[in-house]
Specification:
With 111 residues, the chain is α+β, with helices and mostly antiparallel strands. 26% of the residues lie in helices and 32% in strands. Helix 1 (5-18) runs antiparallel to helix 2.
Length: 111
């Protein structure tokens, strides 16, 4: 997953659908190796509800995950949490640092 954009992209898209979110576009990119080690991967899935971005740093055995949902018309927060849990299971990290943000509200629903 840390090096293969195709495999990571497929896994991200499957996880998005399994969480009940709607993919509407995607971009998966492999970065070239450098003197510091192998290149990482960025996977972006555009969602009807907003986006998923995954960035890998294989030289540090690290990954960042960003799941954002807009909640316009419905509360998609549980789906976002399910997507995050599926991705964490995919990477099976030894440590996790989480930051959950509420970015405002639309008609009384947290955005």
């Amino acid at each position: 997953w840390l090096l293969d954009a195709t495999a990571l992209g497929r896994a991200c898209t499957e996880a998005v659908r399994a969480a009940g979110l709607q993919p509407v576009g995607q971009l998966f990119h492999e970065f070239p190796a450098t003197e510091h080690g192998p290149g990482g991967v960025t996977a972006t899935v555009l969602l009807a509800e907003s986006h998923l971005c995954v960035h890998t740093w294989p030289e540090q055995r690290g990954v960042t995950l960003d799941v954002y949902v807009c909640n316009f018309g419905a509360d998609h927060s549980a789906k976002a949490r399910a997507l995050m849990e599926a991705l964490l299971a995919l990477f099976d990290p030894t440590t996790v640092e989480r930051h959950a943000l509420q970015r405002g509200s639309v008609s009384g629903v947290a955005a």
